[in-house]
Amino acid sequence: MQKLSKFSRLLLILPLFFLAGCNLVVMSPSGDIATQQRDLIIVSTVLMLLIIIPVIFLTLFFAWRYRRSNTAANYAPEWHHSTRLEIVIWAAPLAIIIALGAITWISTHKLDPYRPLDRIDADRAIPADTKPLTVEVVALDWKWLFFYPDLGIATVNELAAPVDMPISFKITASSVMNSFFIPALAGQVYAMPGMQTRLHAVINKEGEYDGFSANYSGEGFSHMRFKFHGLNQEDFDAWVAQVKQRGTMLNRDTYLKLEKPSENEPVRYYAGADADLYDAILNMCATPGKMCAGEMMHIDMMGGGGKESQENREKLTYDNRHADDGIVAPAATVPATGAPARSEPARNSGGDMQDMPGMDMQHEGHSMPGTSNGGDPAPAQLNNNN
Questions:
Q1: How many independent structural domains does the chain possess?
Q2: The CA-based dihedral angle spanning residues 379, 384, 385, 386, taken in that order and rounded to the nearest 10 degrees
Q3: Separation between Cα atoms, residue 337 and residue 140, nearest integer Å
Q4: Is the peptide bond before 105 cis (omega within 30 degrees of 0)?
Q5: Same domain, yes or no, for 191 and 173?
Q6: Which of 111, 146, 177 marks a domain boundary?
Q7: Residue 222: domain span
Q8: Is residue 204 domain-shared with residue 244, that is, in the same domain?
Q9: How far from each other are the two terminal CA atoms of the chain, in whole angstroms?
Q10: What's the pTM?
């Protein structure tokens, strides 16, 4: 019996061991933006518990109070309405919904990741002459590349910033979508190829913090992690000097080698980087011979390139990356790889191919830009021979 009692106590303690692996950094952050987000979680949770806790308590109370064996309870089978109860039941949730709506509206604007910071923390505003530290982030397969354009350096899988210094992140990706996330600093922001997202944040405490991708992006996703160092200004200057001393040059050729999928990539330092490399990555034209997305959008804005645009087909093919090296996405087909399509065209009962919706370029008397249907000719196609 005594052994059974000890075993029962161990069973009660067992759930505590599972909590040992929990990391509560989201609820104990070190940056002002993450702190405000933590407070928003707490306030929202408390407001909702104002309804949830009484409902749970009253459910248990009514089940006990009006149980079948309690003959002292008032039994009123014909009762159907109470104005006072209706007011309480509807007024309290309505008030909480209004409060949550107001908090959400204010926080959505105040914590907009595109919005520049207006304070270092709750007690200190940002001095008017403060210049934020700009960091350009590129999500690669499966590693992180960081550019410091104002300092002329770049790093792989290591990020650092001075304490109480506003940081302006510009975020993009080289291929698939990822999510840039440093829980101690701020909430996650997606990194997408051909697009740039933004994040403004500040770290208020010195320390080493974890950063990672919070969006599944392939087999190397679980190792797509980096360290973020919050340093005082003196230590940050020493870190920059170390990068410049130990680093090499990051040019287009070096980047194209780095861009290839790899796992468990070590920390790398680059003492210098091509000034236009990040913009080339963002515009999906880091590979020689590819047309930049900005130029393509300009052509579209001008009405298209007409028949002349067919000569730029290869320049606009972006989904065959590393195909020459034998690295092909599982679902890749023509024209990127030459592999046949996975599904056959639809056919009618006679065996002939059916016209699929969207295949006809003629639309009710007018044509798409570049078609010969009597419309105005499109401007000449721009060519990027670089």
A1: 3
A2: 160
A3: 21
A4: no
A5: yes
A6: 111
A7: 120-282
A8: yes
A9: 84
A10: 0.74
- The DSSP secondary-structure symbol of 198 reads E
Helices (H), the chain: 2-19, 32-65, 83-110, 233-246, 252-259, 277-282, 293-301
Q: How far apart are CA 158 and CA 14, in angstroms?
A: 37
- Domain boundary among the residues 214, 248, 282 is at 282
How many Å apart are CA 118 and CA 90, to the nearest integer? Answer: 39
In this prediction, what percent of the chain has a pLDDT beyond 90?
49
Secondary structure (3-state) at 187: strand
Q: What is the pLDDT of residues 21-64, one digit of tens each?
A: 566 888 889 999 999 999 999 999 999 999 899 999 999 998 89
Domain co-membership, 202 together with 56? no
pLDDT digits (tens, 9 = 90+) for 121-147: 999 999 888 999 999 999 999 999 999
Question: Do residues 156 and 294 share a domain?
Answer: no
Residue 258 in domain: yes
Residues 185 and 103 in one domain: no
Are 263 and 271 in contact, with CB atoms under 8 Å apart?
A: no
User: What are 230's two structure tokens?
Assistant: 């919050």
In terms of Cα–Cα distance, which of 307, 301, 314 is closest to 384? 314
CATH number for 181: 2.60.40.420
Strands 158-162 and 225-231: parallel
Burial of 231 (0-12, 13-18, 19+ CB in 10 A): buried
Count CA atoms closer than 13 A to 12's CA, side-chain side.
6
Task: Say yes or no: 273 and 297 in one domain.
Answer: no
Burial readout 178-211 (b: 16 or more C-beta within 10 A, e: otherwise): bbbbbbbbbbbbbbbbeebbebbbbbbeeeebeb
